[in-house]
Q: What sequence folds into this?
């Protein structure tokens, strides 16, 4: 099977140049000018960018939460991802309390198998750091699940104490894995939540007001100090939302430590003001960490431009409004999460590249290449180069679209960006050489996605 992408401008994290791209079977076979290939399917990329497929390293498909499930499964969620120009995701398997990691991995593999239309990897959420789990971390890395998510929030559900976190950090370095940290001070937040409810403060905005940025900053700094005490172990902070937490990342990076962090589009384009929408509308934006006052956005953009933040992912975890209404009268019961896997690439292109905040190459670096490196997928994923997987997107920089629940492909009944007009669009999407999105239609096959056996992170300070 041959595909020849002709006449486009290839954009990678490092270069921008005019070239054709020849794909043979599932691999990039050649990149150059005026390529020929008899019998090849031809894709016209004239006046368009040819970019690596996006990699979203933070999604939650079909995640159980508060008595319900995230509304996208591995089929609907990955179809939506493909329409947005994302060709690989890394989702989270959740360890049952006291259960082996292998059981959680197998359960999530079963969720994805036969459904995913793009390639997928798995992180492991660790809820119980026993001696057996510490031993299992080695076999998980060998089997391609090379990152482990720990929580400093949600007491009694996910939150680990500092000793458990420290042991997991030490072990991750021994086995070549990576710890991904949800950094919020769960104990303090729990007190603030109970106090607000006792005072009959029950509306959605109190989700944000009981999770202050200082709680995120304290936990972020403490996490990096634990990593430092563990011997300078690499640590990756997920969904960073606040300037105060970013200051902690910058502090440790400036000292030359392997400190990394991602942010998400919602923290770059939405703000606390959304919680003040009338009635129960603010529940659409209940996520953890919460949206912050608008001034944080400029600080996060500066962090992306200066490489204090290295990745933009989504924390895609959608719930329809009927599920959000489980928290009517008690904000602490609103399922946490919002949709985003389909809109990440275009929001960063429109608001970042078109908006003059980041360069075209930095867009690719943040959304494709660095995620592949940190999560152990590079160079098979995250770039366009001979020998790499042919995960390729033809991107029309002149196309415009209006983001709306009426037109998106995510299985959720609202869009956090309803009515926002953006520039840019994925018009043709290839996953391992197979065209799966073409002319606004999904033309791939359910279940064609493969598990990505990831290696150790490629880290640069």
A:
């Amino acid at each position: 099977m041959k595909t020849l992408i002709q006449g486009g401008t290839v954009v990678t994290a490092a270069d921008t140049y005019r070239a054709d791209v020849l794909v043979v079977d599932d691999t990039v076979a050649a990149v150059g000018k005026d390529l020929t290939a008899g019998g090849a399917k031809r894709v016209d990329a004239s006046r368009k960018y040819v970019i690596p497929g996006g990699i979203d390293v933070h999604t939650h498909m079909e995640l159980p939460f508060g008595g319900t499930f995230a509304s996208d499964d591995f089929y609907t969620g990955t179809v939506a991802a493909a329409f947005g120009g994302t060709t690989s995701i890394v989702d989270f398997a959740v360890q049952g309390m006291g259960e082996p990691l292998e059981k959680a991995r197998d359960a999530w593999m079963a969720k994805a198998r036969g459904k995913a239309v793009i390639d997928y990897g798995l992180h492991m959420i660790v809820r119980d750091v026993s001696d057996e789990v510490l031993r299992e971390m080695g076999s998980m890395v060998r089997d391609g699940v090379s990152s482990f998510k720990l929580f400093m929030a949600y007491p009694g559900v996910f939150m680990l104490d500092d000793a458990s976190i420290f042991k997991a950090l030490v072990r991750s370095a021994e086995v070549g894995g990576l710890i991904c940290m949800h950094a919020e001070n769960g104990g303090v937040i729990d007190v603030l939540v109970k106090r607000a409810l006792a005072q009959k403060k029950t509306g959605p905005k109190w989700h944000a007001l009981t999770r202050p940025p200082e709680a995120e900053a304290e936990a972020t700094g403490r996490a990096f100090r634990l990593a430092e005490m563990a011997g300078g172990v690499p640590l990756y902070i997920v969904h960073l939302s606040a300037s105060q937490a970013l200051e902690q990342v910058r502090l440790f990076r400036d000292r030359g430590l392997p400190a990394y962090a991602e942010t998400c589009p919602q923290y770059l384009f939405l703000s606390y003001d959304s919680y003040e929408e009338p009635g129960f509308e603010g529940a659409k934006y209940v996520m953890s960490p919460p949206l912050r006052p608008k001034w944080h956005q400029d600080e996060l953009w500066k962090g992306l431009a200066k490489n204090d933040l290295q990745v933009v992912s989504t924390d895609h975890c959608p719930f329809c409004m009927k599920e959000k209404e489980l928290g009517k009268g008690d904000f602490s019961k609103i399922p946490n999460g919002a949709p985003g896997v389909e809109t990440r690439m275009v929001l960063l292109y429109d608001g970042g590249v078109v908006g003059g905040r980041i360069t075209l190459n930095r867009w690719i670096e943040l959304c494709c290449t660095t995620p592949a490196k940190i999560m152990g997928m590079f160079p098979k994923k995250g770039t366009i180069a001979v020998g790499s997987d042919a995960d390729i997107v033809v991107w029309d920089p002149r196309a415009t679209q209006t983001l709306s629940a009426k037109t998106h492909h995510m299985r959720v009944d609202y869009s956090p960006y309803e009515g926002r007009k953006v520039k840019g669009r994925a018009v043709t999407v290839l996953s391992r050489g197979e065209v799966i999105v073409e002319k606004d239609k999904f033309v791939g096959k359910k279940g064609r996605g493969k598990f990505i056996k990831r290696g150790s992170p490629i880290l640069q300070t």
User: Anything to note?
Assistant: The chain is about 30% helix and 25% strand. The chain has a mean pLDDT of 97. The first strand starts at residue 2 and ends at 11. The two ends are 40 Å apart (CA to CA).
